Amino acid sequence: MKALPMLTSCCLALGLLASAAQAADAVSAAKAAQLTPIGSVYLQGVPGGPQQVDALIARQAAAKGAGYYRINSVQESQSKSSWHATATLYR
């Protein structure tokens, strides 16, 4: 039974590595000005913290064919249990 939590942790870590390999990259405002915007992402109710928001935006950007993204806003909900964010996607 002790092996189950360890196996679960390893599977989660491998899943995060696999999704990170497919994620888009964050860019600065200066770099974004040189790229072509292709859309946006709006997230609501993301549990965790800013790092989880960033990772989710990166995955969604890649899923929509964007190579880059710039986060416009990140805000903690009033209940402080989730986050909201907006980002612009670029090629």
Order of adjacent strands in the largest pleated sheet: 1-3-4-2
Give the oligomeric state.
Answer: single chain
CATH architecture: 2-Layer Sandwich
pLDDT under 50 segments (min length 5)? 1-14, 16-20
| Main β sheet profile | 4 strands, mixed
CATH overall fold name: Dodecin subunit-like
How many β strands by DSSP? 4
Keywords: Signal
Protein name: YdgH/BhsA/McbA-like domain-containing protein
Describe the structure.
The protein has 91 residues and is of the alpha+beta class. It has one domain (3-90): 2-Layer Sandwich (Dodecin subunit-like). The protein is 41% helix and 32% strand. The chain has three helices and four strands; from the N terminus they run αβαβαββ. The protein has helices at 3-21, 29-32, 50-63; strands at residues 25-26, 37-46, 68-76, 83-90. It is elongated and about 35 Å long. It starts with a helix and ends with a strand.
